[in-house]
UniProtKB/TrEMBL annotation:
Family: Belongs to the RTRAF family.
InterPro entries in alphabetical order: RTRAF
Species this protein is from: Lophotis ruficrista
Gene name of this polypeptide: Rtraf
Protein name: RNA transcription, translation and transport factor protein
Pfam family, one: RLL
Amino acid sequence: DETEFRNFIVWLEDQKIRHYKIEDRGNLRNIHSDDWPKSFEKYMKDVNCPFKIQERQETVDWLLGLAVRLEYGDHADKYKDSTPDGAKNTDNTAKNAEPLINLDVNNPDFKAGVMALANLLQIQRHDDYLVMLKVKRLTQDAIAKASQSKEGLPVALEKHILGFDTGDAVLNEAAQILRLLHIEELRELQTKINEAIVAVQAIIADPKTDHRLGKVGR
């Protein structure tokens, strides 16, 4: 709602930001004026807001952040030792969030669950059911693939141009790694294609010639 939006901006300036002197807030407070958008645009420039007047959601978020910083700066001693309401019962919350911490491994239900899981995963039974929890079941293909060691030279990611920017350094690095892995897969595919071409050429490139029959081949 336009009226609520304008009232919200005025409230932020009057109560929290206070960039203007009281006598200079008249144009901003005149929310029913046709010139209010111009006054608001000037206000955004005066507080160094990086967004345009059309980007309302971003502007509101930025102004709220500014208000919070100023509020904290005015009452730093009051807020520095504050604890969020959700963290007051830290111990109970941690216990509820980590049920495995207080798990009773001698509980018959726990033992029965381990046995049921072993049957489901087709893991060989052991006298000590805790040992069974450490077993990792691998297929023959997975074992064979893991046994193949690949050695190569270290890759300097900074030397490889990504071609686009996600705006996040971590995401950019992850994208570079994915692109390099994709290129490696493409090279392996190209190698297999070349091997197939060579195999076909070996069959058709050396025919037997019988001049008497005037035929090529067998």
